[in-house]
Amino acid sequence: MKPILVFFLTLLTALMLEAVPFPEELVWFRPEWALLVILYWVIALPFRVGVGLAWFLGLMIDLLQGGIIGQHSLTYVIIAYACAVFYKRLRMYHRWQQGFFVCLLVSMNQLIDFWVDHYLGHAEPTLMIFMPAVMTGLLWPWSFIILRSVRRIYAIH
């Protein structure tokens, strides 16, 4: 299988995981799968994966979730840029420390999404908006290991 195809399959898998329905009482605990995958690829391949792909993936999330076009694209671009700037430093951290940084980046995503939704009258203030960030940060070490294995097996450079 070609490495570029495997790369795009990881992104497609993330999009499919975003589309999986969650029970109403557990919706706050849904990780940000697409952002998790794009963050991995920005850290692993910073000169090949960047804000352009983050923008496109954010646009796909907007279309998938039926939100405002560009809402996720904006936050994904900001987060991918921040990650690309600090990728050398991030690579030196332990997985749990990287998970904390991922949690902070996804928290920024959640906060921007909340501001937009609150402005439109679709969201009420609650600290539960940060639970997806916590879940994504907790899943980071395992996601990193899986995606790194995929990258090494299929020689994605």
Automatic annotation (TrEMBL):
InterPro entries per record: Cell_shape_determining_MreD, MreD_proteobac
Keywords tagged on the record: Cell inner membrane, Cell membrane, Cell shape, Membrane, Transmembrane, Transmembrane helix
A GO CC term attached to the entry: plasma membrane
Coiled coil residues, start to end: none
Lipid bilayer topology: Multi-pass membrane protein
Keyword flag Membrane: yes
UniProt record, GO biological process: regulation of cell shape
Entry's transmembrane regions: 35-57, 99-116, 128-147
Subcellular compartments: Cell inner membrane; Cell membrane
Claim: Cell membrane is one of the keywords in the record: yes
Family indicated by similarity: Belongs to the MreD family.
Function: Involved in formation of the rod shape of the cell. May also contribute to regulation of formation of penicillin-binding proteins.
Stated name of the protein: Rod shape-determining protein MreD
Source organism: Marinomonas profundimaris
